[in-house]
Amino acid sequence: MNSGDTAWILVSSALVLLMTPGLAFFYGGLVRGRNVVSTIMLSFMAIAVVSLVWVLWGYSLAFGAGGWFIGDFSYLGLRGIDVNAGGNIPDLLFVVFQMMFAIITPALITGALVERFKFTTYLLFLVLWITLVYAPIAHWVWAEEGWLFKEGALDFAGGTVVHINAACAAVAAAVLVGKRRDPGLEPHNVPYVVLGAALLWFGWFGFNAGSGLAANGQAVNAFLVTNTAAAAGALTWGVLSQFQHQRMSAVGVATGAVAGLVAITPAAGFVGVMGAMAIGAGAGALGYAAVLLRPKTGIDDALEVFAVHGVGGIWGALATGIFAVAAIGGTAGLVEGNAGQMLTQLYGVLATVGYSFIVTLIILKVLDLIPGLGLRVKEREEDVGLDVAAHGERAVVHDGAD
Predict the structure, then answer these.
(1) What average pLDDT does the chain have?
(2) Which of 114, 275, 305, 317 could form a disulfide with 323 if both were Cys (CB 3.0 to 4.6 A apart)?
(3) Which residues contact 402 (CB under 8 A, 6 or more apart)?
């Protein structure tokens, strides 16, 4: 084992975990004040539930031998993984690192269903979704037996597995749960949004630069291109807002940074800094346009999960096939004359979109039909706010008043 690589992936794992509390602040600032505790709890409970599912059977289904579609139960309860076993890094450290990705993915979905989704149903949804949606797609893309891995689809840190996957599930959830009764007109706490985006940006260095599982030149390049794409996404979104409204929104710039981070995720180990700049700028522009167009669909994706993570993830996956540099990641893209990589990337995108949307729709429909569960809270609970209705707490209490 390499102690330097092991130390870096330990730090990277902690950075990736930090992204989920960062997401909690980002989403929590965007909702109305009476739902901020509820929104933050959705992310925190993903940490609790998914951590247990992952070590019990999630990791085994994602990375067990299995076949082309899913793993097996050979690592059930992490049996057979010795503390000192591994190659460059311990096998258990790979389990830990991958667990952090599994945690944040369903947390991303919650941005589409905030302020109206039943909390107890959400806990069961987490278990089913990680088992039936996340684990199979992770196996397709990252396990050696997975069919997209064998096809040569490139996804360095989770453009398809995390972002497209979560975004399509978010659309399915928004369709089934329906629109909010009284959507807020503006975020209740802009500093929360910016703080959350800053924590996401910081944690993303572990997300991307750790995904090569080594402290080497590729990790350094991934770190640099991650920052470059985030900066390009933030600036692009801000400039477009300035042109349209003659004002540069802090929420918009923060969202643009996240869009840039999403888009560079599949490409971080394969592209150079100029490709990253194009990817980040493209994500900022496409995400901005998607936010403007989303209301025309009639779908209440409350916090624009698909516009940021779906559009950004799809663009990033396809752009990987455009800008991949053989000298960096070992695979050339369209710019270097390998047009076939674009088709492979497209296969991965379409498979992820279709599977995630359909299976999530089925999971949620079944949960909605189970007596005593259901997807949506009662109207009076939605009106009073889920902080009090679901948790018996308020985000802020003034002078001890209730």
Answers:
(1) 96
(2) 275
(3) none
Look at residue 57 and tell me whether its pLDDT is greater than 80: yes
Q: Which two tokens stand for residue 219?
A: 């990790």
CA 287 to CA 305: how far, in whole Å?
A: 10
Q: Nearest 5°: phi and psi at 84?
A: -100, 5
In degrees and rounded to multiples of 5, residue 64 shows phi and psi of -70, 165
**Amino acid sitting at position 380:** R
Measured CA to CA, the distance from residue 29 to residue 187 in angstroms comes to 6
Q: For residue 101, how many other CB atoms are within 10 A of its CB?
A: 23
What Å distances lie between residue 351 and 124, 164, 329, 394, CA to CA? Answer: 25, 10, 23, 42
127 and 49 Cβ atoms separated by less than 8 Å:
yes
Per-residue model confidence as pLDDT tens digits over 73-120 = 999 999 999 988 889 999 999 999 999 999 999 999 999 999 999 999
3-class secondary-structure state, position 322 = helix
pLDDT at 182: 82
Phi/psi of residue 373, nearest 5 degrees? -100, -100
8 A C-beta contact, residue 108 and residue 131 = no
How far is C-alpha 236 from the geometric centre of its chain's CA atoms? 21
Contact 365, 180 (CB under 8 A): no
From 19, 40, 30, 26, select the one nearest 201 (Cα to Cα). Answer: 19
Q: Do 279 and 263 contact (CB within 8 A), yes or no? A: yes
Q: pLDDT digits over 209-235, tens only?
A: 999 999 999 999 999 999 999 999 999
Q: What angle do CA 63, 68, 70 make, to 5 degrees?
A: 45
